[in-house]
């Protein structure tokens, strides 16, 4: 799968009829490419007919509809057992007892994997989902998955994420399910999170993300947060500016491993899309099975040779990354700056997308990346894992360099960003994940001016 389309419905869409939605509803549409692992296109405030026309010319492999948070309820219920079969049978009665809602009118979605005796459950009014699907059926648009906005929010380990867009905020915390609320309610939520902390004096790490359309400044939001925290509470802020909140959420959804208990499609049971049957399948199936057997035999005979070719391909692809990783730990800045082989490999990797191997821009980017890496290496002296970069690419059309930084901490990713900002770059930090203590940050940089 290479291309995905994410279509965000507005908060008031449930107040319109199907016909009114088609004629008057404006939505946000974001395209994601699995090939480049990035957002390809953002269309803001477009009509559904415009989306239909766009998809007819530029189809996607998977279309995901995102419901507003006001349409979906995300809750925790107490369950008496962990057995999946028994949970599926008892869940409607548990929801009815603990939420006073009629389970017959609700679509219940869960992974049936409780933590202790608490089970995450997503509830959605069936008539609202049927109406949503009717809108797209009327436009002859196939919908593959349906999510709530809150499901796209990541859960960052040991870090509180606050993403704001004008007067609303999305909040995600390791010890709580993601929520969507007015900014004015942030103090109440923060007090709840601090109360759940393991120790009263534990450091609270907050990643504060503000979209360009937000009317609030970093200073105003930080002051609001600090006032809400208990006196003496230690807090570290990591700030970031993003073009828009929708593409920011899609970047998390596109790179998600889908292991989160909340990251499940709301199209289940009878609502799950049915694949169109192919009348030729019964004829071709025996032929395909026989061909597969022959192919497997052939692959088995050439397995060792194929493995060698694959190893060689992996070696060529990762040569630049392993070189940087090996050169950084015990190298001095002066030595790296004079290491022509290392500089040549970095520049060669960057220039593969530029069409030019000797531009002043590539020379400058190469030197600045090496300088920033060496500085981080000195700061992490004595640690088993030294910082290094992967997935280097340079786009001549935009003058942007993309890379993935592997570091020992989120602060080190932030320091790397600051080093490059100090070198005169515009730096955008996309997603930062913690993989067993290894922090991976996706970074895009472009020379200012």
From TrEMBL:
Job description of the protein: Inner membrane component of the type II secretion system required for the energy-dependent secretion of extracellular factors such as proteases and toxins from the periplasm.
GspL cytoplasmic actin-ATPase-like domain sequence ranges: 36-200
Protein's UniProt name: Type II secretion system protein L
Residues annotated as domain GspL periplasmic: 293-446
Presence of keyword Cell membrane: yes
Bilayer topology annotation: Single-pass membrane protein
Protein origin, superkingdom: Bacteria
InterPro entries, per database record: ATPase_NBD (IPR043129), GspL_cyto_dom (IPR024230), GspL_pp_dom (IPR025691), T2SS_protein-GspL (IPR007812)
Protein keywords: Cell inner membrane, Cell membrane, Membrane, Protein transport, Transmembrane, Transmembrane helix, Transport
Family to which this protein belongs: Belongs to the GSP L family.
Cell location: Cell inner membrane
